[in-house]
User: Fold this.
Amino acid sequence: MSFVQRVRAQADRYGHERSYTFVEDRRGEFGETRMTFAELDARARSMGAWLTGRRMTDQTALLLYPAGLEFLGTFLGCLYSRVIAVPSPLPQTDPRALERAEGIIKDADVRMVLTDSANQGMLTRWLRDVGLDGAVECVATDTLCPPGPDAWTMPEIGPDTLAYMQYTSGSTSEPRGVMLTHANLLHNEEEIWRAIGSPEEGVGVGWLPHYHDMGLIGMLLQPIYAGGDLYFASPIAFVMRPALWMEMIGRYRAGYTVAPNFAYEWCATRVTDGQAAGLDLSSLRFALNGAEPVRPGTLRAMAARFGAAGFEEKAWAPAYGMAEATLVITATPLGHGPLVRRFDPGALERHRAVPAEDGVELVGCGRPISMTVRVVDPDTREVRPDGRVAEIWVRGGSVARGYWQRAEASRDAFDGYAADGDGPFLRTGDLGFLLDGELYVTGRIKDVVIVNGRNLYPQDLEEAARQVHPSLGAAAAFGVEAGGEHVVLVQEVREQRLAGAGAGEVARAIQAALGRAFGLPSMSVVLVERGGVGKTTSGKIQRSRTRDLLLGGSLPVVHAELTAALAALAVPGPEAAGPAAHAVTETAAHAVTETATPEAAVTTRAAVTEGA
Assistant:
């Protein structure tokens, strides 16, 4: 069976009874654009016929759309015509996004860019500027006059047919095209459907970008797979007014939603008292939380902020996954609520998970639904027992075919065999452990900082730093080799929110807080302007890229407190930093006494490692 057959069967079954509705926030009023399953199928057949007529079968097409229904109809049209769709962010004028899109076009052998009429002119000019206009055609699908739906003939499509490519976001490496088949799609949608309780009907609400795996698989495609309705808005609308998301849940009586941790935190802190007073979240039964570290504080903050509006703690569903496994690998089933446990931090540094009443809080990522999950020593390939931290390996129907035109990288990632010969497994590159059937994720192998034989997870350092002062935002912690491994934290700061504190005072406070919480006698703190910390298109921290920018003197430095060993390697640019940025301290012991509480050092690492 193919995903196209599933969509067509659902369209036949539900016709105009089920639908997708794109919601626009018009100064507090909702504007709605609706497309039923039957209309969506007709649109996909028309687009499929048009693409087939353009001889695009088995060719790649880059989909660059704003949020809305046009993307969904075109994406399904690609599936219907056996065109390999490549969803990607609409680059507009961001140089990094334009560079990424150009790289994808070249890497994926893209023949056609599909977009809407509002962006066709800009993209056509850009293709001309980079010398790709002769090789790549740019088409606005919303102004086409495609053949009627009856002109479509289903091509030969099987479970192993390549459906689309999801380009990874490149948080630790260059973006790679993950090849997903129709069987992968069907298997992962079934996993999600089972996690949310296998409903025969239901309503979902969301706003996630359609070019990310969580937005595409978890939000957009799940309704038509399961047979439910979806109401969704644009990411920009959510960021501008986060109450919109909560209001949509109440208005449409949504039973489930999916989002990364930061989105829930954004709502807990940005929704006003007046807005919260008018909410009704009592219909929500399943709130998937993933794509980045899930923080216990966020879980508690949401419950405290919206408990009066009907938000229940049992609705939380932390999950883990990645693009290489389509999306979900493990999930917390409907009604179970989050599993939060405390573990000895010293033992975790030695890759052992030892429960401790006053230890670090970790949020469980749920359990495998039908996938096989092993925790394997990446060096010896020995399967580790419960409570031992090592690399997470995965096997099952959701695991992708491999990376597009990257045979060696595909073998490294997708052909993992344990010492006993069991395999092949997908090697996720993530560290974690299993305990009583629950998976806990502790970080990325490439991101772990090893100091004096201790394994420090950057997420913990970053979260602890963020609590020191309200002016602080995103951070990137990493190690730099300078006669030994040295810990560096690059921390974004909003200078207008320093409230009288000096930048140097705040930097030293961070040193002191992290020094005490993690036993670090020496570390460097670099404060940078907002946006100075490298992030992927999905918002994940690019630690290695930030490290390179620091060493290259390209960060917008506000102030730096550097150890003597680092000062010779990482001297901030004087134009961005100014003379005060070159202060050097030998140890954090000389820092000021303004610190975070010990609890600020606690963070959890449950995450859907979103690939796009």
Observations:
- Confidence is low (pLDDT under 50) at residues 573-612.
- The longest helix spans residues 37-53.
- The first strand starts at residue 19 and ends at 26.
